[in-house]
Amino acid sequence: MADAFTFMHILAGVTALGAAGAALVTVKGAAWHRRAGLIYVLAMLLVTLTTLALVLMRPNLFLFVIGIFSFYLVFTGWRAAAQRDGRPRLCDHLAGATMALTGVAMLAKGALQLFATGGAQPVILLVFGSIGLSLALSDWRDWLRGPITGKARVARHLTRMLAGTIATITAAVVVNLSFLPPLIVWLGPTVLITPLIIWWNARVLRPANPV
């Protein structure tokens, strides 16, 4: 049974990686871009579900919280594109609450493990936990200010989808470049791609850029 879930997990991950690439190179808002984005979201959902199944068979809290963090990025990116009125629904609040609680758990486990044993894993938990909790809290802050529309909605969609792509690439790097130091394979894609997200956000949000 575990082998079957592992196969589905790998297949979904490869599909997600391909769909993410297709979404990046197609015209934003065009039919093929939307189709690639939907395939990516569904593939990442399958990645998350198979991760949870594998964790139930072989308990691993680290992979469990990383799986929640990764899908939260993709889910909120998809929701930003789907909800053009920019108003949160119940599922958005539930996702935010899940990520906030997961972020707190990641920070707590990371801090305790860092002082107890050290190593790369607690650093990874602290970094991703901080990012996840910050994003969840920023969601609620933005919703309190009013609907997220226009350029802000587009920037939110791009940010979360690219962040989800980082998670997909990270998974591929962790599996295929395991000979490298853990911090490099786990945090390298984040360090390399985050500047692209910052640049893309600035480009979308600049006053002269129409949406």
Explained architecture:
The protein is mainly α and 211 residues long. It has helices at 2-25, 31-57, 61-82, 90-116, 120-145, 150-176, 182-205. The protein has one domain (2-86, 142-205). It contains seven helices and no strands.
Q: Low-confidence segments, ≥5 residues, pLDDT <50?
A: none
The count of helical stretches stands at 7
Reading the helices and strands in chain order gives HHHHHHH
Question: What class do helices, strands and sheet pairing give?
Answer: mainly alpha
Integer average pLDDT: 88
Q: What share of residues is helical?
A: over 70%
Whole-number tally of structural domains: 1
- Percent strand equals under 5%
The profile of the biggest β sheet is: none
Total number of beta strands:
0
Radius of gyration, whole Å: 17 Å
Shape: globular
Alpha-carbon distance between the two ends: 48 Å
Helices, strands, pairings?
Elements: H1 2-25, H2 31-57, H3 61-82, H4 90-116, H5 120-145, H6 150-176, H7 182-205
Helix pairs in contact: 1-2, 1-6, 2-3, 3-4, 3-5, 3-6, 4-5, 5-7, 6-7
Quick tags:
mainly alpha; 0% strand; 84% helix; 211 residues
Give a quick precis of the structure.
With 211 residues, the protein is mostly helical.
